[in-house]
């Protein structure tokens, strides 16, 4: 294949989950494995998206698919490609699904043609590879246009939308109008929350599956305080000599060490013991990097000694996000314009992306080392970074939007900000938690249990199984009535 890339997926047996699930949860998983083996015998379950790296969808597929394979299901992951025109259109659609204008450009016949033209070679290759009994799960706007070709090849086709907004507006409806003709032809559509379901879809074929995290992946696995310190030192984020090996366990079970350094935009490195507030996000204006920075500068730094770390991927490495470099430039400009005293407390970090597991474990260490984790997005599908931080027992301050509201119970397992643009409220919430470490600790403990109960990967696997079971039953040709 040349337009489509097949991503290597490891394999995890279900027993691996025993250490993070309750007995009851684990028993449910065991039962599901037997059902899945029977249901998917002789079928491949394909997942198709447009990037193997960076962002929530890639993160989730990396986390979930090894468990499906470990359960004996032939799950595969295919990544489609496109040109600049394609990704400009899909980013526009993505922004509008979030209810935001994005670059403000049109979504007309010309964009439709560019979109479909880029999908054509991908569709050709996928149709060659996919069998009639297979199931294809297409992710996000980039893949929606593939539905008709794949349906025509006989496969069962599901489209999953990871983005949405709580109250639809006309901007979002423009994106729906662009995608609808293809999406309507899918056997089922999946959304991350009830509120994201489009107004005019056949509800019988719509299902909700909340995103989840893999507690044992490099992004979330347990790391001792010494290893956290060693990783942050080795990655060049904290000024210290590593006292332990910066070690982690790869998805394939082997042990590896962090080797690469992050690129930092800072006057001086963090010192051991410095309290820092962290946001980890792609360089996307909907993650509001400027708001995170300004709120810190205006409403946190003047009141308490703390640092801000804003970490995202090295922008050169993320191919399906044309806005990244521009948003990073804006953040840099903001940083440069600060007075020296403030600037010394603000650290912009570009994480190396050459080895995604190394990238993940640096994020893990940053999250574990943070005094408070922030996710002050203006729009959010789910917000995996929130679940990741909650699993690490961090107190999280995050916007009351999208799936973040499903994760955090305000005041108990984190703090929700009613108005994501209210920088004073954000600052107040952060300072309040920094000043009350006991409350921050209690919140962190509640947060971890919240994630254990609802947002670990095994939950998604159970939900996918239930949906596929239903879709395949609906799809089976009805047996002819017996003759008398
Ligand atoms: N992420 C990462 N490295 C980075 C920036 C982000 O691994 O440099 C991960 C982050 O930990 C999370 C995912 O990318 O797992 C982002 O998912 P989320 O749902 O928070 O936002 P999205 O990017 O899908 O809008």
SSE blueprint:
Blueprint: E1 5-7, H1 23-39, E2 44-49, H2 56-70, E3 74-79, H3 84-97, H4 109-129, E4 135-139, H5 141-144, H6 147-152, E5 156-161, H7 170-183, E6 188-191, E7 206-208, H8 225-234, E8 247-249, E9 255-257, E10 263-265, E11 276-280, H9 289-299, E12 307-313, H10 324-336, H11 340-343, E13 346-351, H12 356-369, E14 372-375, H13 384-391, E15 396-399, H14 404-407, E16 415-417, H15 423-435, H16 437-454, H17 457-475
Parallel strand pairs: 2-3, 2-4, 4-5, 5-6, 6-7, 11-12, 11-14, 12-13, 14-15, 15-16
Antiparallel strand pairs: 1-3, 8-9, 10-13
The structure holds uridine-5'-diphosphate.
Uridine-5'-diphosphate (UDP) binds next to helix 2, strand 12, helix 12 and helix 13.
How would you characterize the overall build of this protein?
The strands form three sheets. Strands 1-3-2-4-5-6-7 form a seven-stranded mixed sheet. Helix 9 links the parallel strand 11 and strand 12. The N and C termini lie far apart (52 Å). By secondary structure, the chain is an alpha/beta fold. It is globular, with a radius of gyration of 22 Å. The longest helix has 21 residues. The protein is built from 17 helices and 16 strands. The structure holds uridine-5'-diphosphate. The site of uridine-5'-diphosphate has 18 residues, from helix 2, strand 12, helix 12 and helix 13.
